[in-house]
Structure formats: structure tokens, C-alpha cells
Amino acid sequence: MNRALTIAEMPCDQIRLGDRHRKDLGDLEVLAANISTVGLLHPPVVTKDGVLVCGERRLRAMRDILGWKTIPVIVLEVPSIVEGEYAENEIRKDFTPSERVAIGRAIEAEIGKRQGQRTDKGLPVNCPEVEPGVETREVAAAKAGFDSASTYERAKRVVEKAVDEVVAQMDTGDLSISAAALIAEQPPEAQREIVQMPAAVRRQIVRRLREATELPSTAEAR
């Protein structure tokens, strides 16, 4: 595995929750039962300092319901990603869109720490200083494996506003990022109704939503 990512066993009490954007964690009992039956398919992601990047539901299910004292985690070396020591296409391949959103936010925070640093103090040459705002988002989007800053922003909107069912379908590829972002703008119950419909009907609804908001259909990014 690339040096920016390692798998380790970490005590649960050493994992710290940072700023979380989703408050509704859904049915953790079902998730815990699934982990207990089939195992943990994708460990939570933490920084080397033990700050949770993504996987809060998995962490809480294992820690609070299953009573695990230690859990496997993927340790993400965010500075290494920013410095170009981990290929963006590997993140695209290894992580779901919602996980890449969390990684993108961690990258934005790392870039924020570097803004204003003097280049004679050792800032890596392959990671030039970037200006705050749009350029920072563009760098984070690329390094988190998104094809554009706009796709990254749409995926963020899904993570922040969508119900679990919409996020899950985005992560599995049943919904494109742009379609999930459109659905995420609807009331929660409407979101759940849409994702439960047959795929053909769901596509028609998404098409109508896109026409109503005048979003370009070429943004069907995954």
C-alpha cells in the first residue's frame, strides 16, 4: 500500500471525532449486526493523530454496540497526499464518493495550515502555496479523486443534506453524484420515496429536477 495509507489496529478511546457534518447516523444496530456477521469490509479512516476522517457510523457500531476495544483503521497521511506522494486515481479507486468528500475536507484543512508559509521554510516544490477559496477547493477536489471542483461541491452537498439512502446509492454508483445532489435538495421523505422507485422512474424524476434547476446533464460524474 502507498505510504500515504496504512492499515493499523487502534484503540477506540484514541480515536477523536472532529467536526461532523451529518447528525443523523441511522440504524446502528443493523450496521453492527452486519459487521458482526460478515465482518468489517472497509475500516474507518483516521489521521495519524487519531482524528476520524470518515466512518463514524462504523466506529460507533463497533465501539458502542459490539463493545470492541480496538478496531482496524486506515491511517491517512494527509500531508503526504497534499505533497503528491499518493496518486489521486488511487483515492478514486479505493474510496466511495462520500469518503472522498471527507478526505477532501481533510486536504482543505491541511492546505489551510500551509497558506502564508514562506517557501524558504521547506514547503514542498510539488505542492505550491495556493490561494484560499476556489483554488483551494480545486486542489482538494483533484487530490481527493474528483474530476472537478464542481463535482466535489455536489458530493459535499449530498453528504451534508441527503438522507442515508441517497448517500448509500451514490456510494454504490446506483446514483451519479449530480443526480444525488439534485435529490438531496428535496425534503427528506421525498428523497426516500425517490430512491425507492424503479431505476427508470427515478431517472425521469432526476431529469425533471435537473430541467427545473437548469443543471447541465453532462455533469453525470461518478
**Alpha-beta classification:** alpha/beta
- Rg of Cα set: 18 Å
The rounded distance between the terminal residues' Cα atoms is 24 Å
Helix-strand pattern: EEHEEHEHHHHHHHHH
Shape summary: globular
Question: Spans of 5+ residues with little confidence (pLDDT < 50)?
Answer: 118-128
Round the mean pLDDT to the nearest integer and report it. 84
Largest sheet at a glance? 5 strands, mixed
Strand residues, percent: 5-15%
Topology:
Layout: E1 5-11, E2 16-17, H1 28-38, E3 45-47, E4 51-54, H2 56-65, E5 70-76, H3 78-82, H4 88-94, H5 97-114, H6 134-143, H7 149-161, H8 164-172, H9 177-184, H10 188-196, H11 199-213
Parallel strand pairs: 2-4, 3-5
Antiparallel strand pairs: 1-5, 3-4
Helix pairs in contact: 1-2, 5-6, 5-7, 6-7, 7-9, 8-9
Written description of the protein model:
- The protein is an alpha/beta fold.
- The protein has 11 helices and 5 strands, in the order ββαββαβααααααααα.
- Strands 1-5-3-4-2 form a 5-stranded mixed beta sheet.
- Helix 6 crosses helix 7 and helix 7 crosses helix 9.
